[in-house]
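Continuing the series of single-chain predictions for the mutant panel. This is the parent chain; the variants come on the following pages.
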Amino acid sequence: MEFTKPQDILFFDIETVSQYGTFAQQSDRMKELWAVKANSFTRSFDTPMTEAEVAEFYEKKSAIFAEFGKIVCISVARFSVAEDKSLSLKVKSFAGHDEKQLLLDFVTMLNKRFTRDEDRICGHNIKEFDIPYLCRRMSVHKIPFPRILSLSGKKPWETSHIDTMQYWKFGDVKHYTSLNLLSAILGIDSPKDDIDGSKVGEVYWKENDLDRISEYCQKDAVTVAQLYLHFNHKPLLQKEQIEYFK
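Parent structure:
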């Protein structure tokens, strides 16, 4: 596989939640549309879900759909290379309740620091989830895409994004492996030492704890960077080589 210079890569991860704390808070139109979405994923239209089941499914699954969810955190990590060629990793998060402002801040950073042809972005399952989700939410807010996220007119193989799950697929188009599982079997410290993805909505809506979500998201970004080093036969980072910024 082609090795991109670590300092030319932005490693990232996003965390998403439902747009509303409960199903009932949506508009009537969106309630109807969610019911259609929910039924299409769970049962045939001959046996529709009850209203209670639709509401429960909203709290459990709406965050993964860009039409019904929103981004509350984007964590990024980037390598620095010292004179002796040793690496260190700097990590920070864009987090907030105002999704549009969060995305604008993220895009401003991309437009300032990642504009060269050799610049890359890297994440786990980003081609099927993170990047489409980001672009859809940016479209909702009418935010122009930065160069590194501009996919217009490009075929899938023409994009330069690095997806660590693609590394593990080895050509298998149907296989999915979670970041937690992949890091476990490769001997990389688990990022899931506090919450997991299924709990992010609860932490957001019930605990209002963005800091906790940011810390969780940052650990995923660090794990992605470690996976990249592993797949390219480079030494993994030690804890003292990782620096976190508020």
